[in-house]
Amino acid sequence: MNEQEVTVKSTLIEANELIKAVFSDYGIKNEDGEQVTRKEFADLVGQKIWLVADILGIELD
Predict the structure, then answer these.
(1) Is residue 61 included in any domain, yes or no?
(2) Source organism's superkingdom (predicted)?
(3) How far is CA 31 from the centre of its chain?
(4) Which of 1, 15, 25, 41 is a Cys-bridge partner for 48, taking CB atoms 3.0 to 4.6 Å apart?
(5) What is the mean pLDDT of residues 17-28?
(6) Residue-number span of the structural domain to which 48 is assigned
(7) What dihedral do alpha carbons 50, 53, 55, 58 form, nearest 10°?
(8) What angle is formed at CA 14 by the lines to CA 45 and CA 52, rounded to 5 degrees?
(9) What pLDDT score does 56 carry?
(10) What is the pLDDT of residues 26-46, one digit of tens each?
(11) What CA–CA distance (Å, rounded) separates 28 from 39?
């Protein structure tokens, strides 16, 4: 597996974990231990999706 494949795989796993966490009882906390807002959550997942799309050469509009 090359470096790009590893990055895509780990990024997709991270996005999946974020999505699962938002529906769990404990939610998502930032580095300071504070609850993440919906906007922050959307930004985190969006960053993961855009990174994968960029690596795969897919243009998202």
Answers:
(1) no
(2) Bacteria
(3) 15
(4) 15
(5) 80
(6) 3-56
(7) -140
(8) 65
(9) 92
(10) 778 888 989 888 888 889 889
(11) 12
